[in-house]
Here is the input.
Amino acid sequence: MLAEIPAAARTVFAAEAGADSFADSLYDSASRYLFALGIVVGAWVMARVSQRILRPRLTERRTESFGRVVSKLVSYGIVAAGVLVAAVVAFPGFNPVDVLAGLGIFSIAIGFAFQDILSNLLAGVLLLIREPFQSGDEIEVNGQRGIVERITIRETQIKTYDGEKVLIPNAEVYQNVIRVQTAYGPKRTTLSVGLDDWEDLDRAADVMLDALETVDGVAAEPAPQAYFTHFADSTTNLDLRYWTEPQQAEVRSVQDRAVRAVGKALKDAGISMPSPIREVDVRQSVEDLASDVDASDSNGQNGELETARS
Here is the structure.
């Protein structure tokens, strides 16, 4: 039957069949690509929606930084899963298991190349889970002191008391000693005071404690305390202790008022706070100077006598 069909007609039929097959293949590929693109877009939309839903709920339960970082990590995971599913749809021969196995070796190289970034990421997550401090706390890390503004995936941002912004890598924060000034509420401040050795120590302590009670910002509980500590060269020293709110600005402000009030109270009561006294022994130096003067005068007189004789 095919032999009866002219060669030209067979060529036309073959071309039409090839064109139909190509069109079907193209249509099938385009459908798969569009569906894969739809999966990626859907995953992106789902990630955005999940972030908007999770962030406020996590913030209510933990902190603002925790809600922001965790919701962002969840959204990244959703997008990554969507890309894998889209790759399977777009490329039927694609095997995610093989990709993940390849990523195992690749991730080792990535781990060495981006060790600092990954360590900061992990440290940031651990800081958000453990919460040794929160945004708004006043901390000190490696000599850097200030108010925590936020904790991101990579660094902890603080605002110093001088108004500067400092970024500390999370790994450095996590691995070092952290001093949280606002963790436990009231903070104790100690003033060192030196009194004259001849003063009535009990009366002086009562005067200073009464003065502290009038200072605005000094807590009534725990009450201020005065402890004599040691004898110095020319004074008897004591530590005057009181408690305030832990914020640095409040601590410094109350300290200024406390020093002024205590100093005025001691002055009004006639109690002396002498400056350090130093005793300098110059007797030998004076004797040497007198000897030099006598020798000089003697030499001068001898010279005059010789001149007169001549």
User: Anything to note?
Assistant: The mean pLDDT is 79. The CA atoms of residues 194 and 237 lie 4 Å apart. The chain is about 60% helix and 15% strand. The first strand starts at residue 138 and ends at 141.
